[in-house]
Amino acid sequence: MDFLRDYVKMMAYYKMNTFQIHLNDNAFKQYYNHDWNKTYSAFRLECETYPGLTARDGYYTKKEFIAFQQMADSLGVEIIPEIDVPAHSLALTQYRPEIGSEEYGMDHLDLFKPETYQFVDSLFREYLEGRNPVFIGKRVHIGTDEYSNKKADVVEKFREFTDHYIRFVEGFGKQACVWGALTHANGSTPVKSKNVLMNAWYNGYADPKEMIKQGYDLLSVPDGYLYIVPAAGYYYDYLDTKMLYNEWTPAHIGKEVFPEKHKQIKGGMFAVWNDHAGNGISTKDIHYRVFPALQTLAGKMWTGKDCKVPYETFDTKRLELGEGPGVNVAGRMGNKPRAVYNQDVLQPNTKTGLKEIGYHYTVSFDVQAVKEAPGTELFRSPDAVFYLSDPASGKLGFARDGYLNTFNYQFYPEEEATVSISGDEKSTRLYINGKLKEELDIQKRYFNGGKDSMNYVRTLVFLLEKTGNFKSTIKNVEVLNYCK
Questions:
Q1: What is residue 118's DSSP assignment?
Q2: Euclidean distance between CA atoms 159 and 271, whole angstroms
Q3: Mean pLDDT, the chain, as a whole number?
C-alpha cells in the first residue's frame, strides 16, 4: 500500500490522472507442474462475503483501500479498481472449485452455471453497495479479458456475461470499464456499449474501428507499444521511450491511426503485467522500469504530436527531475558519483539517517568476524534486510519481496576482510579483498524437463536505515553513489 500511495503522489506530480489497480490474477500453470491446484493466484482485497478468498500473503484492507482512493482523489488521481472475470480468475475457482471451467481451465469461470453469477454478483456487491461503498470512484473495471472463443455457444455466453456485469455495476451508479474482447468474441448476443469505457489493447481482440462504430469509448493501451512484462522475454522489459516520444500518441492503437483528439478516444495508458510469479522481481525493479515510461508518457498524453523538444534533450532533462515531493522509490542520491555515507565504526542497533541507496552503488566495509547466529542482520530498511549470517545457511545474503538470495560465502571466526557489495538493475556482486567472489545476476530456471524457463532476478536496492544486532566489528563503512 505504501508503494501504491507513493505512485499516486508521483502521478499527481507528473499530471497523470488515472491509475487502474488489478486486484486479482494468477500465474501460468506450466510453472506449477501443470496443476491448477498448485498454481499461484491471489485476490488482493479484504473480503467478508467469502472468508478465505483474500490472499494470505498480502492484501489491502477495505478501510485502507478506501483511504487510498480518497488520498488519490485529493491529488487529482482517479483509482479504477478491477476485479478480472471471467478469465484470470483462478483465485476465485481455487476458493470455489465448482464455478471453474473443466473444459477451458480453472482460470476460466464456467459461464453456464448459475452459481458462477451468484458468486460474482455477491463479490462485486460487497464493494459497490451501501452509502459508503469500498469502490468510491465513478468507474469500476470488470475485466472480460482473454476468455476462450473456441465454441460459438461459449462466445455467446461470454457476451451475455459481459453485458450482465456492465449493467450490474451501472446499477450502483458506476461507469463500467472492460478489456477489449468483442472481436475475439464476435457474436450476435448484444453487449451494451453506451457509456462503456474499453481498454483497446490488441486489435485482434477488439478492432478499434469497429468498437468505435459500435459506440464504445476507448482507452488506448496497445500491447505492442505499451506493455511491460518484467524480465519475461516477451513484450517490453523497458518501454521504447524514444519511439514513443517521437512517434506515438493515444490516437495510435496498434496499426490503426485515428484523428488526434478523437472524441471516443479518452486517453492512453501503459501497463505492467507481472506474469512470471516467482521470478525474483522486486517492487524496486518494477519502478525502475515504470518511471522512465511515466515521465515520457506524461509528456505525450498532454502534448500529443507537439513535442518541440528533441528526445535527446528531453531524456537528459528528465533525469534531473525527481519523483515528486517527498517521494524517492528508486533511492536516488543524485546523478553524480560521490560518497553518501561514511562511518569509521558501525555500531549495532543504530539508525544511519539514510533509508536506502538505489542502483549503481557500492557499499564497502572492513570486518573482523566472530561467529554470528543465523539471521544476524547487518542493515535493514522497511523493504529489505542484508544479512551477515542469513537465517537458512549462515552465509552473506539479503531478503526482499519474499525472496532470500545468498552469496556462497561465510566468514571464518576471527576472519578479517574488506567486503564490497555493488548493485545495479541487472545483478548484485560481492567482492572480498578487492576480488569478485560472486555475481548474482539474472538466472535461467527451467521447468518441465527444460521445455519451459523463467528468468530469475537477484537485484538489491541496498538498505541502510538501521543496523542489526551483530557482534562482529564493522569498520570503515563507505557508501558510494553512481546513480544514473
A1: H
A2: 25
A3: 96
Label residue 334 by pLDDT band (50, 70, 90): confident
Q: Which residues of 352-382 are buried (b: 16+ CB within 10 A; e: fewer)?
A: bebbbbbbbbbbbbbbebeebeebbbbbbbe
Q: Tell me, what's the pLDDT at 483?
A: 66
pLDDT digits (tens, 9 = 90+) for 206-242: 999 999 999 999 999 999 999 999 999 999 999 999 9
* Predicted pLDDT of residue 464: 96
Contact 254, 208 (CB under 8 A): yes
Q: What is the C-alpha to C-alpha distance for residues 227 and 239, in angstroms, rounded to an integer? A: 8
Phi, psi of 216 (to 5 degrees): -75, 145
Question: Measured between alpha carbons, how far is 237 from 102 in angstroms, rounded to an integer?
Answer: 34
Global pTM value: 0.95
Termini Cα distance of the chain: 27
Cα 107 from Cα 120, distance rounded (Å): 14
Helix crossing, 114-128 with 152-170: angle to 10°? 30
Q: DSSP character for 304?
A: T
Report the candidate in 414, 358, 408, 354 with the shortest Cα–Cα distance to residue 379: 354
